[in-house]
User: Fold ABC-type polar-amino-acid transporter from Actinomadura spongiicola.
Amino acid sequence: MTAVKTETSGGAIEIGGLRKAFGANEVLRGIDLRVASGEVVCVIGPSGSGKSTLLRCVNLLEEPTAGTVRVGGVDVTAPDVDIDAVRRRIGMVFQSFNLFPHLTALGNVVIAQRKVLRRGRAEAERIAREQLEGVGLADKTGSYPAQLSGGQQQRVAIARALAMGPEVMLFDEPTSALDPELVGDVLGVMRGLARPGEGRGMTMLVVTHEMGFAREVADRVVFMDGGVVVEEGPPARVIDDPAHERTRTFLSRVL
Ligand code: ADP
Ligand code: MG
Assistant:
């Protein structure tokens, strides 16, 4: 059984007129994008097109220059926003896994739950074990990052994000740093998150160069270039029958 996805009126992520400049360099030049609750949107585009900056504006790792970002109906760009509260609702997985080297897999999944959510040790460990089992690492809870492959480390990072109970998950090229044979395990975990056996899948905004994943898992694909959305639509349309020359040129390089 596949998850049934229903559009809800309050989009999980609503980005309107988003601009971001670093000095004179305007990196995002008016982005409008909506990710509905339970929807998976993949963002593709050349290096330097502003994909990471877009994700970083959603969880306020970068402060937008103009425009609005709403997550679950809450305007995260409002001046009085509680940044820590916003970040608790948004899970983020980066290209580099950023695990603490001196903590085991279990310790890495426990620590933010303890420090940020103030969960008790027993509860945090129970949730960490559940999440590590969910990403296929039940037998690695006691391993240190150096004892794990890149793909296993990235799955710990995903478990760590999920343990915080986020409403949405942002992925920034989560498989780009991995050896090719390890990519599949991480994409498999993401596929399971998007399309669980029961219930609604996680709302996901995923920057990736994995066109197979985008074609199979994304509800929509967004092609960005030069800080704007050039085109978006169902994966079969954008990837296999792009409307714009810039999209065709990009795809001819990555496919
Ligand atoms: P992408 O993820 O699509 O490769 P990025 O969002 O990382 O693109 O970067 C887009 C542009 O923004 C690049 O020209 C980059 O140099 C610039 N940029 C990104 N972050 C910063 C920053 N913190 N300070 C200055 N320039 C930045
Ligand atoms: Mg990037």
The chain has a mean pLDDT of 93. The beta strands are 13-22, 25-35, 40-44, 66-71, 74-75, 90-93, 168-172, 203-207, 220-225, 228-233. Residues 9 and 115 are 34 Å apart (CA to CA). The two ends are 30 Å apart (CA to CA).
